[in-house]
Design brief:
Mean pLDDT: 85
Strand order of the largest sheet: 4-2-1-8-7-5
Structural class: alpha+beta
CATH architecture of the largest domain: 2-Layer Sandwich
CATH class of the largest domain: Alpha Beta
CATH topology of the largest domain: Alpha-Beta Plaits
Number of domains: 4
Oligomer: single chain
Distance between the termini: 127 Å
Strand content: 15-25%
Shape: elongated
Helix content: 40-55%
Low-confidence stretches: 1-5, 633-639
Length: 639
């Protein structure tokens, strides 16, 4: 039994301990507490555990023993499901804990008692008393519990005061550091470095809503957008601007999402990930929120500064483009100029320029300078859908997760900018990216400005070329002239990637003239021309080569595709002309992958036509660069 005198001495000890305590003297308070209690109570050992809400454990904060070799307490008492903590909160005076829960070493002749601690302020705890002889009375347990709880409450308040003082000082210093930095990447790096310093056992990510530079070692992710993404806790933090907490079952961790909030908006989210389930104290959540707000304001200031710099740069860019557009560029030069600027602005996968031919029918033409995708069947189908969508909406299209039920394409990011002039949509500029959210909204707005400044140059140049095209049209067939075809082929061989030329000759045309007369003969040529016109695409160039010879140039088309087109036209001519005639066709092609010349290209097509006539007419013969090389090699061997 503890004597009354010892109780009085203990009471005096508690009093002196509290009166001598100051905010700067709390580091060894728990050791002084256990040592003094052990001496006053004449016990064999005393240990104090306090509950750690981070780990859901009772951690040993101090112990005192007369003979350390006889008694050694565990550093922690696990309470993952809050069994002991719940009992304490319910008012249980003492707990029965198995020896293996408490002790690493304990002498068999020592008894122990576990008294619960529920201070008015601060975490719950366990007071472990050990003794060889008499037990501690209920009355003494109540006294010890009450007095110890007073000390723990006071110490907790002092520690809280110190904690808030240190955290506020840290926030002041880190905020000053943030606002000294004028580069967004430097701020992001400082955020991560500071968090690793504060919480070394956690992992961190920055979920950003805007573009960011790829920096090795900087854990950045992009915030997800879309209907489904709003269900994510990270998205809720971004949308609501408040800290969110999530316990993730799949990896047994707890995540805190703190929005990087400025005065004008939210710029991203800090993700803090624990290694296990933890309960973040409210004071830590408050500190994390203040830290994130300071970082958000710094990002906002830097972003505004960079935006103002970008605005000046954009205005200079628009001024330079306007000067170049006013320098009488040809259409190819205009498209290449705008395409170059788009490539400089963003990492586009495909760029297309579409000119709207007629207001009523919504026919369109893919202009030279567009990338190869827009010349393909798949690309032209996609263009048709975008034309319909843009004209229906009467506005630009900007999507980072584009989805169309009518067609499946490997492009997720889409920008479509109408070329408007005098209230009419004269065409579209289409920019595609393979990855989701490839383009920023700032890029989209700048592209709109560039297209607005470029539209008049596009329209005037296209009208000029249309007039030139009308002047270069054959009167009888309404096909292009031979000179126009030659010019187009020469231009495309300088800028394109490949092309195919088909030469047609109406078989036995002299007999048609001799039998039916020249008027009917002209009608036959017109019928063949109409079939050719109905069998090719808008980018293809049909021409009257001379007399009863007709031609088609197919840009961005290989040799085998050209043979297919020629055979299709041959079949239609044989079946749908009156009087019935047939065609002989010669097909040749060129590719930028092999050295070639326009002269050789024409000669190959002409030679193929000659061989078709020699083979009995009404057939298609191809003569490509490969066949030319073989023939040249044979001639060399003969020499």
């Amino acid at each position: 039994m503890i004597k009354q005198m010892n109780i009085e001495k203990l009471q005096l000890f508690y009093y002196e301990l509290l009166t001598c305590l100051s905010p700067q003297q709390t580091e060894d308070i728990y050791e002084r507490l256990t040592c003094g209690m052990n001496e006053q109570l004449d016990t064999d050992f005393i240990g104090i555990y306090l509950f750690d809400s981070w780990t859901k454990r009772f951690s040993l904060v101090s112990q005192s023993a007369r003979n350390q070799r006889k008694v050694l307490l565990n550093n922690i008492v696990e309470d993952q499901v809050d069994t002991y903590r719940t009992a304490i909160m319910d008012g249980t005076m003492t707990l029965t804990l198995p020896a293996d829960k408490l002790f690493i070493v304990i002498s068999p002749d020592i008894n122990y008692k576990v008294i619960t601690l529920k201070p008015a302020e601060g975490p719950a705890g366990l007071l472990v008393l050990g003794y060889e002889a008499a037990d501690v009375t209920w009355e003494n347990c109540v006294f010890i519990k009450q007095e110890t709880e007073k000390v723990l409450s006071y110490v907790f308040l002092l520690d809280e005061s110190n904690w808030h003082l240190e955290k506020n000082q840290y926030l002041f210093e880190i905020t000053s550091t943030f606002f000294m930095l004028n580069n967004k990447t430097d701020i992001l790096m400082k955020i991560i470095a500071s968090l690793r310093d504060i919480y070394p056992s956690f992992r961190f990510y920055l979920l950003l809503s805007q573009d960011h530079d790829e920096v090795p070692g900087l854990p950045i992710k992009s915030l997800k957008y879309g209907d489904e993404s709003t269900k994510l806790v990270s998205s809720q933090a971004f949308i609501n601007g408040t800290v969110q907490i999530e316990d993730r079952l799949h990896d047994q961790s707890t995540c805190v999402y703190a929005p990087l909030k400025g005065l004008q908006g939210v710029y991203g989210v800090i993700q803090i990930v624990s290694q296990t389930f933890v309960e973040f104290p409210s004071k830590e959540i408050d500190f994390i929120s203040k830290f994130a707000n300071a970082a958000g304001k710094a990002i906002e200031n830097t972003t505004l500064y960079q935006n103002s710099t970008h605005l000046v740069s954009d205005l200079k860019l628009l001024n330079d483009i306007t000067h170049q557009l006013n320098s009488n560029l040809e259409l190819t030069g205009i498209t290449n100029l705008v395409k170059h600027q788009i490539i400089q602005m963003c990492n586009a996968s495909e760029i297309g320029f579409v000119y709207r031919m007629q207001e009523i029918t919504n026919q369109f033409e893919v202009l030279e300078g567009s990338t190869a995708f827009f010349q393909s069947v798949e690309g032209r189908g996609f263009v048709r859908l975008l034309v319909e969508e843009a004209l229906a909406k009467k506005e630009s299209i900007f999507s980072g997760d584009y989805n169309n039920s009518h067609i499946s394409l490997p492009f997720r990011s889409v920008m479509v900018i109408p070329m408007e002039n005098s209230g009419l949509v004269n065409g579209l500029v289409i920019v595609l990216g393979q990855n989701p959210y490839s383009f920023t909204f700032d890029t989209f707005k700048l592209l709109q400005s560039i297209i607005r400044h470029s539209t008049l140059a596009f329209v005037n140049t296209i009208l000029k070329e249309q007039l030139q095209k009308a002047a270069a049209t054959d009167y009888l067939t309404q096909l292009f002239s031979r000179s126009y075809l030659d010019e187009k082929i020469m231009q495309h061989m300088g800028t394109g990637e490949m092309g195919t030329l088909i030469l047609f000759d109406i078989d036995d045309f002299k007999k048609v003239n001799d039998t039916y007369g020249h008027y009917i003969g002209d009608g036959v040529i017109k019928q063949v021309a109409d079939i050719i016109m109905s069998s090719i695409g808008e980018q293809d160039v049909p021409a009257r080569w001379g007399g009863e010879e007709l031609a088609i140039y197919l840009p961005s088309t290989d040799l085998n595709e050209g043979v297919h087109v020629a055979r299709n036209i041959n079949n239609q001519v044989e079946n749908f002309t009156e009087p019935r005639v047939t065609l002989s066709a010669g097909v040749s092609s060129w590719s930028m992958e092999e050295a070639d010349s326009a002269k050789d290209f024409f000669v190959r097509a002409d030679k193929a036509l000659y061989e078709a006539k020699s083979f009995g007419k009404n057939c298609v013969v191809k003569y490509g660069r490969k066949e030319q090389k073989v023939e040249e090699a044979d001639e060399t061997r003969l020499l």
